[in-house]
């Protein structure tokens, strides 16, 4: 029973930490908006009541008008914040996972390409062997749909040589 209370207390603490990472602002209609994401760009600075990481303090910028900070300084501060390297370990772990996934996909594509190349080499070898049989002048027979053996005549032989030549031209490169 004591462990359950400790776990519930820990969960309550974690929930309060998650709640502290909230944004609060007043929208154009005067309604308070609570979100875990930053307000849209059209919300004025004076309407932002709470930011994450402020320790639960609410601030209203009534004392300092938004024109006190020049637009050029605000833009350069925004650029420097955007270009600053992220220091959290989560991003590094995410990058490592992404890199591993990309490597696995590249290895899979390479294996598939090797399989295709191997199949082409085998097809080429079979086609060369079949062409050698047809070029030797030996009678060639095959089994038809009825299961009967039939000898190829000159027209069938020529069409088969043409088909084999097409296979060789596509696979033997």
What does this structure look like?
The chain is mainly alpha-helical and 173 residues long. Among the domains are: 22-64, no CATH class; 99-171. 55% of the residues lie in helices and 10% in strands. The chain has helices spanning 2-19, 71-83, 89-135, 154-171, and strands spanning 23-26, 32-35, 48-50, 141-143, 149-151. A hairpin with a 5-residue loop joins strand 1 and strand 2. It is elongated.
Strand line-up in the sheet with most strands: 2-1-3
Overall 3D geometry? Answer: elongated
Report the radius of gyration as a whole number of Å: 37 Å
Tally the helices: what do you get? 4
Termini separation (Å)? 75 Å
Structural class by helix and strand composition: mainly alpha
Order of helices and strands: HEEEHHEEH
- Number of DSSP-assigned strands: 5
% residues in beta strands: 5-15%
Largest sheet: 3 strands, antiparallel
- In quaternary terms, these chains amount to single chain
Descriptive tags:
4 helices, mainly alpha, 5 strands, two-stranded antiparallel sheet
In terms of topology, how is this protein built?
Elements: H1 2-19, E1 23-26, E2 32-35, E3 48-50, H2 71-83, H3 89-135, E4 141-143, E5 149-151, H4 154-171
Antiparallel strand pairs: 1-2, 1-3, 4-5
């Amino acid at each position: 029973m004591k462990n359950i209370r400790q776990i519930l207390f820990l969960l309550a603490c974690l929930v309060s930490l998650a709640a502290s990472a909230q944004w609060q602002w007043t929208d154009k209609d005067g309604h308070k908006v609570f979100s875990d994401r930053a307000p849209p760009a059209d919300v004025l600075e004076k309407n932002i009541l709470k930011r994450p990481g402020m320790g639960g303090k609410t601030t209203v910028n009534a004392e300092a008008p938004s024109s006190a900070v020049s637009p050029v300084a605000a833009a350069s501060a925004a650029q420097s914040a955007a270009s600053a390297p992220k220091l959290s370990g989560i991003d590094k772990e995410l990058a490592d996972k992404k890199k591993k996934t990309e490597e696995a996909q590249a290895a899979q594509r390479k294996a598939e390409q090797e399989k295709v190349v191997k199949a082409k080499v085998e097809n080429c070898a079979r086609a060369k062997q079949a062409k050698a049989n047809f070029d030797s002048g030996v009678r060639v027979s095959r089994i038809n749909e009825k299961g009967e053996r039939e000898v190829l005549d000159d027209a069938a032989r020529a069409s088969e040589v043409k088909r084999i030549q097409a296979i060789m031209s596509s696979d033997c490169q």
